Amino acid sequence: MAHPYCDGIDRRGFFKVGSLGGLTLAETLRLQALSAAEIPAEKRNDVNCIFIFIIGGMAHQDLWDPKPEAPAEIRGDFTPIQTNVPGMQLTNILPHMAQVADQFAILRGLTHTDPDHTAGYHVMMTGVHPGVGGNFNRNKQDNNVHPALGSMVSKVGGGNGALPPYISVPNFLNSGGPAFFGASHAPFVIESDPASPEFSVRDIVLPEGVATDRSQRRQLALREINRLEAAAEKSSQTVQAVDVFQEKAYNLMTSQKARVAFDISRESQETRDTYGMTSLGQCCLLGRRMVEAGCRFVAIENGHWDTHRKNTMSLRDLLVPALDQGLSALLKDLKERGLLDSTLVVLTTEFGRTPRINTMAGRDHWPQAFSIVMAGAGVRGGNVIGATDSQGAYVTDRPVTPGDMSATVLKMLGIDPDIVVHTPVGRPVQLANGGRPVHELL
Asked: What is the extent of the structural domain holding 393?
C-alpha cells in the first residue's frame, strides 16, 4: 500500500511523471532500457528528424504542383509564382516558402491506392498499407499493424541525449504508434499547444508547490526507503529495477537540459513572431528546440485540411499562411544555427486532392498523385523529383511509394531500411517493407 507524504502526495504518485498510452514516464524509460541492447552501436547517427504531418490531405495543385495551363475547374484560383530557384514554381499562397526554395526538395510523384483517411495515415506514417482484412480497424485512427517511423527510429536508431528519442506534439499523431515493437517505443506525447499562453509540458516540471529543497529531501528519503526495501527483498530485483527507473524519470523531470528544451518561453518574442504565433508555427519552433537537445524524431500534427468545400478560402485564409510562415522560418532558423545538415525536415500528408473542383467549391480525396517536401540532412535544395500529368491526376515520372518515403527517411537517419525485425511470435518483418530510398534527393 502506498503511503502519502504529509502534503497528500503518495510516494508512487509522486513518480508518475509522464504518460505514454497509460504508461508512466518511469515505466517507459525502463522499457526503453530493456530494449537498448537491440540497438547496434553502428546504427546510431547524428541526424535527427522533424516530421510534419498535414492531416486531411494537402491539395498539391494549389501548393506544390501548380497546373496553370489546365481549365479553371482543375487549376483552381491560385497562380504560379517564381521561387529563388530558376524554373521552380509554387503557387502564390506560398510566398515565404518561395524565398527558401533552394533549401528544400519537392517530391511530386507520391502515390498509393487508398482514399480513406485512417488507412492513409497508416500507410504514410509507417510505409505499410494496412490491407483490407486482418486486425486493422479503419474506425480507429491510432491503430497500427506496423510501427510508425518514429517508433522505428526509437528502436533501431537510439537516442542522442536526455530527451526521449520519439516525441509527438501537440498530441498523439494518428497511426503514430509502435505496433509490435511495444510500448517502450511509443512516443512521448506533449498534449499541449505551444501557441497557448498556458503551454507547459506535463510531467517535465515538478508538481506545483514542490520546491527544489523539498524534492531533494524526498529523494534522500526515497533512497533510504529503497535501501531498506532492497535489504528486505534480496531475492527479488523487481523493486530495485523499478525504483531505478523511477529515479531516472525524476532526473529527466529535473534535468536542466530537458527543462530548457521544453521551455519555449525562453525564445525571444521576435523569434516566436518569426515562426508565427500559430499552433503549427510554435510546434515547428518547439521541434527545433527538441532536436537541438537531442531528440531523434519529433512528429508534429497539423489538422483540418480536409477541404471538401470552400477549398480556396480554407487554404488561402485559414491553413496555408501558418504553414508558409512556420516551415520557412524553421528552415531559415536551422540553417542559421548550423543544424540543417543534421536535421531532416519532412512535410507530408495522407493523400492529395482531386484534380477537379467539386460542386461545393472543394476538392475530394485523391491518393493517386500528391506532393511532399523534404529538406536538410544532405537533401539537395531546389530539386523537383517526379511529375504529374497536365491535370495533376496521375504520376507520369518517378513515382514514389509510402514505403520509398519511409526507406528514404530511415536511410538519411543512418538506419538501414532493409533491417529485419521480428514480431512477438517470431515473424520476420522488414522495416521499410521493401521501399527503396529516393537517391535523387541527395
From this structure: 11-68+82-304+315-341+349-355+365-441
